[in-house]
Amino acid sequence: MIIDFRSDTVTRPTKIMLEAMFNAPVGDDVFGEDPSINTLEEKAAAMFEMEAALFCPSGTMTNQIAIKCHTQPGDEVICDSTSHIYQYEGGGIAFNSGCSVKLIDGNRGRIKAENVLQSINPKDIHKAPTSLVSLENTSNRGGGSCYEMEDIINIRQACDDNDIKLHLDGARLFNALVAKKQSPAQFGKTFHSISICLSKSLGCPVGSLLLGNKEFITKARRYRKVFGGGMRQAGYLAAAGIYALDHNIDRLSEDHLHAMQIAAALAQKDFVQEVYPVETNIIIFTLKQTISAKELVARFKESQILVHAISSSQVRIVTHLDITPEMTEKTTRFIQSI
Ligand SMILES: *Cc1c(COP(=O)(O)O)cnc(C)c1O
């Protein structure tokens, strides 16, 4: 049996989730007539106490639509240098929105209000107008690191003082909410828009949601159509999301426990230089010169354990819904044996 830690996107829908999908009432969502999508959008908006939500095929699309809505061509977006929106969305900020980017070297993916204030362009005809700050929580490249709410509130204040919008790439926001015992409503209050992924740790096959006020979501709905993301009877997919929001959030603490157990085993090993502090479901560790990331990934693979080399000396392990306590134990025993 293969144990797949490459990403939390590898989960398969469970039988009970598939049954919910199979039984979903559907209609044409471009006409606003899919009851399951409408229910999912209302449910997510209510959870975050935001006015409205929009169901999209991917987190890349929800982020890119948000950036498009908040900016004009020629504007500048502020984000951490490791951000998914900058590193892993195909240059979409330039391609879709015609914006430049000001990168901040944050602390494991997290930036602070003072970084933001230093990065805002002065109102000067030589400069691109700064119109958006985007945060990522949890931070993927930061190894699942979480923001303190106080830091986010300070960033929002800096944005308000400079007439700038604040977006959250919350692909793994539920991991942060569970780990930090934070409330979705507090996030809803602090961001102009939030993107959440259903297809990561929540275990859905497809789907992301964009949240914001009514005016923003009306605009976002138009851009979703322009970007080719208007779907028809996608209520079958939304039904998986409804199921996941009801059943798969609280259990994320199990994934976090598994990640900590694996990290503890790694920390004992001579070939490991450093394990990033584990806060949620991602473990990133750096190797000593004695073994390359590629070699270590191959060693794991011989034991049917899949992990991911993110650089020549760093490996990432992600725990998720399909990782059982037995798989975690087998993995820690394997690590001890290396
Ligand atoms: C996965 C991910 C996304 C969205 O990715 P899609 O594959 O397009 O759904 C966005 N941000 C972060 C931080 C991610 O990890």
TrEMBL record:
Molecular functions per Gene Ontology: L-allo-threonine aldolase activity
Required co-factors: pyridoxal 5'-phosphate
Keyword Lyase: yes
The keyword Lyase appears for this protein: yes
Keyword tags: Lyase, Pyridoxal phosphate
InterPro entries xrefs: ArAA_b-elim_lyase/Thr_aldolase (IPR001597), Low_specificity_L-TA-like (IPR023603), PyrdxlP-dep_Trfase (IPR015424), PyrdxlP-dep_Trfase_major (IPR015421), PyrdxlP-dep_Trfase_small (IPR015422)
Gene3D superfamilies named in the record: Aspartate Aminotransferase, domain 1, Type I PLP-dependent aspartate aminotransferase-like (Major domain)
Pfam families with a match to the protein in the record: Beta_elim_lyase (PF01212)
Residue ranges occupied by any Aromatic amino acid beta-eliminating lyase/threonine aldolase domain in the UniProt entry: 4-288
N6-(pyridoxal phosphate)lysine: residues carrying this PTM: 200
Listed GO CC annotations: cytosol
Source taxon at top rank: Bacteria
Listed GO biological process terms: glycine biosynthetic process; L-threonine catabolic process
Listed PANTHER family: L-THREONINE ALDOLASE, L-THREONINE ALDOLASE-RELATED
Similarity section: Belongs to the threonine aldolase family.
Protein name: L-threonine aldolase
Organism annotation: Flavisolibacter ginsengisoli DSM 18119
